[in-house]
TrEMBL record:
It holds the Pfam family DUF3467. This is DUF3467 domain-containing protein. It comes from Winogradskyella marina. Residues 86-107 are annotated as: Disordered.
Length: 107
């Protein structure tokens, strides 16, 4: 790989990932709308605030089915580790949120 020649400390197979300041701030989301086709999963992250009749999609992530499955597995493993360290995450029943666009998804 060309990067190995530029950076001798970079081990073979290791990926150098950069995180710029703006992305590192993150985006708050309390709703994920998930849709899929034969070739991709689309996850829209939304922030819904009480008393606000309208919300916008804050971020859209498009994944291949294989990456969606890997994300599911990785998220499950991380939730298990979190609960082992901090106790069970309680899932409070929420009233259904009426969505007036596209097919219904689940979060």
């Amino acid at each position: 790989m060309a990067d190995d020649k530029k950076n001798p400390n970079n081990k073979k197979g290791q990926i150098n990932i950069e995180l710029d300041e703006k992305v590192a701030e993150g985006t708050y989301s309390n709703l994920a709308i998930i849709n899929h086709s034969v070739s991709e999963f689309v996850v829209d992250f939304v922030s819904i605030m009480p008393g606000t009749p309208k919300s916008k999609v804050k971020s859209r992530i498009i994944l291949t089915p294989q990456h969606a499955k890997r994300l599911l597995k990785a998220l499950g493993e991380n939730v298990t580790r979190f609960e082992n360290a901090h106790g069970e995450i309680k899932d409070y029943e929420q009233p259904p949120i009426p969505l007036n666009f596209g097919p219904t998804g689940q979060a």
